[in-house]
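sry for the spam today, last one i promise. struct tokens for design, 79 residues
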């Protein structure tokens, strides 16, 4: 994945939503993406990269405030 690229995902309703990748980084040996919906670039979400046993990539929304804070501190983006 490349910073500033646009990716499309399906939300829980099956509707396509476009996100802009703002940063990609590693914190405590885990990979993270900071992304924002294209329509609301000020709404930054933190996603953790995870791979299953077949090496299929998954993005998991991070909801733990301590983890979010650690990732945001390591990022080059200003919050």
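last one done:
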């Amino acid at each position: 994945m490349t910073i500033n690229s646009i990716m499309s995902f399906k939300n829980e309703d099956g509707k396509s939503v476009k996100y802009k990748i703002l940063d990609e980084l590693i914190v405590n040996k885990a990979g993270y993406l900071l992304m924002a919906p294209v329509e609301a670039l000020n709404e930054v979400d933190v996603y953790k990269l995870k791979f299953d046993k077949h090496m299929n990539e998954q993005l998991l929304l991070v909801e733990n405030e301590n983890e979010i804070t650690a990732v945001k501190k390591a990022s080059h983006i200003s919050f």
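The radius of gyration is 13 Å. ok im logging off now
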